[in-house]
Amino acid sequence: MQWVNGDNKNTKKKKQFSVGYILLILIIVVVIVRAVGIVNNYRERGGLAYVQLLNYSMPIVETQIYDESAYRENTVDLKRVLVEALGLNNITTYGIIGNEIAYFKNPLKETVTVSNNTNSRFNIFTPYEVKEESIVRMTDEDIAELNSVSAAYDPSLKKTLDPNNVEVLIYHTHTHEGYIDVGADSSEEDFTVVGVGNVLAQELQEGYGISVIHDKTIHDIAPYADSYFRSQVTVESYLEQFPNLKLIIDLHRDGGPDKDRTTTEINGQSLARVEFVTSQTSPYYNEMMETVNSLITIADTLFPTFLRDEKLMEYPSGSNDFNQNLSPACILTEFGADKNTAQESKLSAKYLARIIAEYLNR
């Protein structure tokens, strides 16, 4: 009898053990399904998270096929996807209570006093509406500052503009990159890298007589990881028309660094610091580096703190070589980061225009 009872106990343990495995598998499946849904909700399509997962599980793949540096500007990494999939991204007082009590899901409520012979106070949620004061616009002061002559300007560098001799192309692989005014991703041109490109193009053309094309094609639609392949088509089309372009600038802003690292003060103005980015696998690497090093030397001579401390960020490879495989004239610039204001980056554009004019016109 004791032997039979012991066998029954073992049988129960085996059943419990099997149930535990089943529960674990179900949990893993749920997390995976949630993770896939989260990745699909982002415009980046989780390229970085996917690559990181492969690199962790199959290290040999990392050096042969997948390179995380190609996704250096993606924000949807593996950690972020897992945190959201596990529901750990909403660990705040309102987040925890809101998950249990719907009334607290939106803490943005206003308190009003109702006068009806009582002193009752009711909490009501503010209905959504577009308010005039919520629309982001450039201030009159910002516009006046941009329209004034920059302290960086040197009139001796101005030459006669020849519209038929296009020397500089400015474009944006990540066209929607925005600044702190509007958030990391925006279509409000004045507060994105496109607005910075507008200032750079105008200063080069009107201030220094350098003919410029500023292309505003939107390249960073889903899937985000294909942005460089789209912008490649744009650059190639211009190279067919203007094979002698002297500078092809992919103008970006960085994401992540603290503002202290990406901001400086020159001539009493707060400026976003600039950094160059290169891909070492570009077939034009040596020629490109001659250009970049010349620009760095000029910048350090004229405005010692204008460039970030790193000055140049080199990657063993980049997504589609950051298009630097198309021409020795291709360079990539980062104007500040997501914590800078658009105004700081626009003012910096006038300083880079001076540096470029020194390089092309001197």
Order of helices and strands: HHHHHEEHEHEHEHEEEHEEH
- The end-to-end distance, rounded to whole angstroms, is 102 Å
Number of helices, counting only DSSP H or I runs of 4 residues or more: 11
Overall SS class: alpha/beta
Into which percentage range does the β-strand content fall? 15-25%
User: Would you count the extended β strands for me?
Assistant: 10
Low-pLDDT parts are 42-46, 63-70, 102-131
CATH superfamily name of the largest domain?
Zn-dependent exopeptidases
**Biggest sheet: strand arrangement:** 4-3-5-10-8-9
Radius of gyration: 27 Å
Stated plainly, the CATH topology of the largest domain is called Aminopeptidase
Whole-number mean pLDDT: 80
Kindly state the percentage of residues in helix. Answer: 40-55%
How would you sum up the global shape? globular
Largest sheet: 6 strands, mixed
Keywords: Membrane, Transmembrane, Transmembrane helix
Transmembrane segments: 21-39
Protein name: Stage II sporulation protein P
Pfam families: SpoIIP
